[in-house]
């Protein structure tokens, strides 16, 4: 259902590195939602960092939406970077699993490409030497 890796970097550094790696895969971060900051602001609080990134490649979004508007339920792609105990994790729901719910072959094929590229971006972000 998901792909998750452990990052050797802080949450902030992982987010920054991930944004750079995603650009190489022709994806951009549309939105970086700091869940902890928002919950703290609302007086609810959260004991660990948790960021949600909304990620998109406009050409791919147009392609899949031209095939089936139902794909819009899963756009933009979501990635998360969070702290769990003493470890930083980076992950995403698998686009292939989500698009299987639509039962459209073109959408499934696009999802395979997206999943591969986004996974490559995550791996590069956590393994790349500076």
Automatic annotation (TrEMBL):
Pfam family, any one: DUF302
Occurrences of domain DUF302 (ranges): 33-95
SUPFAM superfamilies found in the cross-reference section: TT1751-like
InterPro entries reported in the protein's UniProt record: DUF302, TT1751-like_sf, UCP021774
Protein known as: DUF302 domain-containing protein
